[in-house]
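(Deposited chain)
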Amino acid sequence: MKKILVLATLLTATVSFAQRTKTTTYTTTTTTTPVTYSSGQNELTANVGFQSGAINLGATYAQMQGSTGFGGYFLLQTEKTSAAVNQAIALGGLYKINVISTSDAVFYAAPGAGLAMIKVPSATGTGTDDKTVFGPSLKLGAQLKVSPTFAIGVENMTIVNWFEEKAPAGFEIVTVAMTFNY
């Protein structure tokens, strides 16, 4: 009987110790996303300004690839005869270069070329003549980034006349520029 008791104890003890225990391992991963401003591929800039009482309105589109991109511009300057400001409509192409771009600001240059229709006083002294001119253009701007998709600042645009002698040799316009990235 003693042998059976020892054998029974041995069998129950080995079975209870032979059972495997489940081990659960928990892992946690943390992901941090850096805060960056959007470098959207498309930029649309709206321009508004005044020159001697004449209103200047414009729009620029640029399809950006990194810090450079191709695009086009449109500008309308209203006439102000008392201040000798000619009416002008300009459109053309440009190559925009973000010279300095930080998380808070962007400084850019956009050389280009285009056509401009300028209303000038007629040679006879009565009325006006419309002159179509061709030449280079240059936009220089500085903007502060308000949000990842919006920036506001100042832009200076110079349009030069190469060929038409009866039209001004060029004109310069300073506007408030608002850029939307999308």
About this structure: Residues 40 and 81 are 41 Å apart (CA to CA). The radius of gyration is 35 Å. The longest strand covers residues 128-147. The chain has one helix and eight strands.
